[in-house]
Design goal:
8 helices; about 190 residues; Nucleotidyltransferase, domain 5; single chain; 5-stranded mixed β-sheet; about 45% helix; 5 strands; globular; alpha/beta
Length: about 190
């Protein structure tokens, strides 16, 4: 029986506004992600255009049943209520269980300090988004999904230019907060 690999990574842990996004990718161990997704790597080092291409290809492979993926979001309100660590953990658990309700024959690879539910065989890898293709792909689907969400929501809050900085603490974003205060998209605990 072919073992299933699940890769997990996050996007948007540090921004002042918007949700944190957890990407979860499931693929058979013998599926060559590097070959299927040329240029896959740490989402922060892959260009926006390339990330969009990889995401589009991931959607095709998902439709064909070769891989599966999901992205779980935790809102600014949840982050403010339970803290970023618990918000991220909740998304990781939900995403892993969604893609693999059965824990047998599954190995979960997670970036950084992330952990899957304890009943899963798992390995946490520092800088895994740079070294493990299944984590790199999870990183990219998380980042593309989050960036798209921030662009969609930007129209509701035009004064903050979320489509430009995606909620990160740029000078222009901090200046907008000074001028307009916080919106419902902002993480109050991150904006002191």
């Amino acid at each position: 029986m072919v073992k299933i690999l699940i890769g997990v990574d996050e996007a948007g842990r540090g921004p002042l506004a918007g949700p944190v996004a957890i990407g979860v990718v499931s693929a058979p161990e013998n599926f060559d992600i590097k070959k299927a997704f040329p240029g896959v790597g740490d989402s922060k080092k892959v260009t926006e255009k390339k990330r969009e291409e990889i995401y589009a290809r991931a959607c095709i492979y998902r439709k064909e049943g070769k891989i599966d993926f999901c992205v779980e979001f935790s809102s600014a309100q949840i982050i403010d209520t339970v803290g970023i660590t618990k918000a991220v953990r909740g998304c990781v658990y939900k995403g892993v269980k969604k893609l693999s309700p059965d824990t047998k024959n599954v190995h979960v690879l997670l970036d950084g300090l992330l952990h899957a539910p304890p009943e899963y065989a798992q390995q946490t890898i520092i800088r895994g988004d740079a070294s493990e293709p299944v984590i790199s792909l999870a990183s990219i689907v998380a980042k593309v999904s989050r960036d798209r969400l921030m662009c969609r929501r930007a129209g509701e809050f035009p004064e903050y230019s979320f489509e430009v900085h995606k909620g990160y603490g740029t000078k222009a974003h901090r200046d907008a907060i000074q001028k307009f205060g916080l919106s419902e998209m902002h993480r109050k605990t991150f904006c002191h």
